[in-house]
Specification:
alpha/beta; Glutaredoxin; 5 strands
């Protein structure tokens, strides 16, 4: 695959990642999780570890065969109040980067930092089917 095709594919995958910009967005995400599972990423745009986790998150989106899975993300620096409110709402200590698998309004699995890998996300999803 040539570089232009790869760039086009990456842009398409990024479009499939929906932003969470408010607590209303978060509440809507929880409602949607009753219809289909959701992967949610807390991402810092300033952190190299978070950049690696973000790449794994995007790659997971590409590799998931079940296209009904939702992928959402909050940028923790740009939307810090939302990110911290989500930590309070879930009872899961804030970390960045951090991924959660949400199903039926509840966090079923979460990981942070170097635990965020395609393999770990796929395994968590398969356990929750």
């Amino acid at each position: 695959m040539d570089k232009q095709s790869i760039n086009r594919m990456e842009k398409e995958v990024k479009r499939m990642i929906q932003p969470v910009l408010s607590m209303t967005d978060w509440e809507n995400l929880l409602e949607r999780s009753h219809q289909y599972p959701i992967f949610f990423l807390k991402h810092s745009t300033q952190c190299p570890i978070s950049a690696k986790a973000h790449a794994q998150f995007l790659q997971s989106r590409e590799e998931m065969t079940d296209q009904s899975i939702g992928f959402f993300m909050v940028k923790v620096i740009e939307d810090r109040p939302v990110s911290l409110a989500i930590a309070d709402a879930t009872g899961i200590q804030h970390a960045s980067p951090q991924v959660m698998l949400i199903k039926n309004g509840m966090v079923k699995w979460h990981a942070s930092h170097f635990e965020i890998t395609v393999a770990n996300m796929l395994e968590a999803y398969e356990k929750e089917l």
